[in-house]
Amino acid sequence: MIIGVMVPMRVAICILELYIPGVNSLKAKRQVVRSLTQRLRNRFNVSITETGNQDLWQRVELGMAVVCHNGAGADSIMEKIYNFVELENNVDIISSRVENY
Known about the structure:
It contains two helices and four strands. The protein has one domain: TT1725-like (Alpha-Beta Plaits, 2-Layer Sandwich), CATH 3.30.70. Strands 2-3-1-4 form a four-stranded antiparallel sheet, with helices on one face. The chain is α+β, with helices and mostly antiparallel strands and 101 residues long.
């Protein structure tokens, strides 16, 4: 059994609902979502998956989680992710929700 000191950490969870104009099939939607999620993973080391609207062509719900040593760090990363997605040309943010634990 390993006994150690508990290290404080914060978890931030974000749900983004996005609109993807111009796609006319699930295949086209998947291509946009796959590209976006991979870039977010690579750039921010965030855990991300499609959590809703999986059968709708032009809408997607993405769930993300990040773990940091403090709440300010988690909030900062989520803000950077939001700004990154907001600058994307092929998606529009419909809504977002962030929760910290």
